[in-house]
Each structure stands twice: as structure tokens, then as C-alpha cells.
Amino acid sequence: MLPREVYNSRADTFGARADRLQKRADRMSFARLISFVGGLVLFVALSSLSVIAAFTVLTVSLIVFMALVIRNSSTEKKKRTSNTLRRKK
């Protein structure tokens, strides 16, 4: 195998990985939105019934939101690396 063929093959592999990571990042962005908005909606809905339940739901949703933000940061870093390595000259 010629060096150019190896380079192109690896670039294609990194490109496919970057595409998968982009899809994962998109799903995580949607999950972040749902956890944040859902937590706020549940907080408002539960605040009239039970303040403790409302704050518990809000706390849990914010913890889930922060976990998704941290995981998304890692995914974005991997995606940037794969996009850099996918470039063909």
C-alpha cells in the first residue's frame, strides 16, 4: 500500500468518526435542552404543590444538565481532533 493510500484511508476513518461524534453532540445538545427546560417546567408545576419536591426536581435536572455539559465538552474535543485529522492535502 502506498503512503498516500494509507493517508487517505486514515483520513476517511477519522472523517467517519467525526461524523459519528457530531451526531452524538447533536443528541446531547437536545438532551441538555430537555433536561433544562423540563426541570424548569416541573419546578414551576410542583412549586404550588410541594416546595421540597420542586427543589428536588430542579436540583436533579441541573445535575443532569451539568453532567451532559461536561460529557459534551469531551465529545466536542474528540470531534475537533477527528476533524483536524480528516483533512486531506
Verbal overview:
This protein has 2 helices and no strands. By secondary structure, it is mainly α. It is rod-shaped, with a radius of gyration of 20 Å.
Shape: rod-shaped
First CA to last CA: what distance?
18 Å
Output the structural class. Answer: mainly alpha
Q: How many strand elements?
A: 0
| Total of DSSP H or I helical runs spanning 4+ residues | 2
Main sheet specs: none
Rg? 20 Å
Give the secondary structure arrangement, pairings included:
Blueprint: H1 3-47, H2 51-86
Helix pairs in contact: 1-2
Keywords:
89 residues, mainly alpha, 2 helices, rod-shaped
Summarize the structure.
This protein is an all-alpha fold and 89 residues long. The chain has helices spanning 3-47, 51-86.
